[in-house]
From TrEMBL:
Keywords: Kelch repeat, Repeat. PANTHER family: KELCH REPEAT SUPERFAMILY PROTEIN, OS02G0202900 PROTEIN. The lineage of its organism: Eukaryota, Metazoa, Chordata, Craniata, Vertebrata. It comes from Micrurus spixii (Amazon coral snake). GO terms for biological process: protein ubiquitination. This is Kelch-like protein 3.
C-alpha cells in the first residue's frame, strides 16, 4: 500500500517522531513559509493537523526531548530575517509555547538530541554561515555555547550514535560538503571523520537504523 500524502506541500520542513507519530513541522509550500504542523499515524496511514506554531518557519530544525517537540530557528519569510526563537510543542495539551531564544539567529541549523539536550549546529544568518554550536537544557530553559565545529555548515543532517553527535554534509554557502564530523560531549571537541561521503550533500536526510556496536 502507498503511504498517504501530507495535507500540505512542504519543503525545508522539520521532521521528527514523538509518541509513534511522525510530525512534519513548518517548511515552505512554494510561495510562503508555513506555521502549520501535521502528524502521520502509520497505523491508519493518515495525516492530521495539530496546533500550528506561533511563527512561520521554513528551514527549521526540530528535535524531541523528554516527550516534547522543539522547533528551532528557521526563516519566517515575513520579516525577511532568520530566527533565534524556539518553540516547544506539548502533545498532551496540543499547544506550542516559546522557550528561551538561542544566542544567535539560525536558519538551516542542524538540530539533534544527545543526552537529553537539544543541539543547534551551524546554520546561517543571511549570508553568514556559522560553525558555532549551542545546546539547550530543558531542565533549566537555558542555552549555552559549546565548541565550534571544524567547518561552517548549514542544511546539514544530524544524528546521534553511541553517545556522539554526527553532523553530515550541508553547505558552506558556496558548495555542498561531503565531510562529516562528530561531537564528543565528554571532551567538548569536534572531530572530522577521516573519510568523506562520496559526494557533497546539502539537505540530506539522516537516520540511524540498527545501531552499530
Amino acid at each position: 500500500t502507498s503511504i498517504a500524502s501530507m495535507q500540505e506541500r512542504r519543503s525545508t520542513l522539520g521532521a521528527a517522531v514523538l509518541n509513534e507519530l511522525l510530525y512534519a513541522v513548518g517548511g515552505f509550500d512554494g510561495s510562503t513559509g508555513l506555521a502549520s504542523v501535521e502528524a502521520y499515524n502509520y497505523k491508519v496511514n493518515e495525516w492530521f493537523f495539530v496546533a500550528p506554531m506561533n511563527t512561520r518557519r521554513s528551514s527549521v530544525g526540530v528535535g524531541v526531548v523528554e516527550g516534547k517537540l522543539y522547533a528551532v530557528g528557521g526563516y519566517d519569510g515575513a520579516s525577511r530575517q532568520c530566527l533565534s526563537t524556539v518553540e516547544q510543542y506539548n502533545p498532551s495539551t496540543n499547544e506550542w509555547s516559546y522557550v528561551s531564544d538561542m544566542s544567535t539567529r539560525r536558519s538551516g541549523a542542524g538540530v539533534g538530541v544527545l543526552s537529553g539536550q537539544l543541539f543547534a549546529t551551524g546554520g546561517h544568518d543571511g549570508p553568514l554561515v556559522r560553525k558555532s554550536v549551542e545546546v539547550y537544557d530543558p531542565g533549566t530553559n537555558t542555552w549555552k555555547q559549546v565548541a565550534d565545529m571544524n567547518m561552517c555548515r548549514r542544511n546539514a543532517g544530524v544524528c546521534s550514535v553511541n553517545g556522539l553527535l554526527y553532523v553530515v554534509g550541508g553547505d558552506d554557502g558556496s558548495c555542498n560538503l561531503a565531510s562529516v564530523e562528530y561531537y564528543n560531549p565528554v571532551t567538548d571537541k569536534w572531530t572530522l571523520l577521516p573519510s568523506n561521503m562520496s559526494t557533497g550533500r546539502s539537505y540530506a536526510g539522516v537516520a540511524v537504523i540498527h545501531k552499530p556496536l
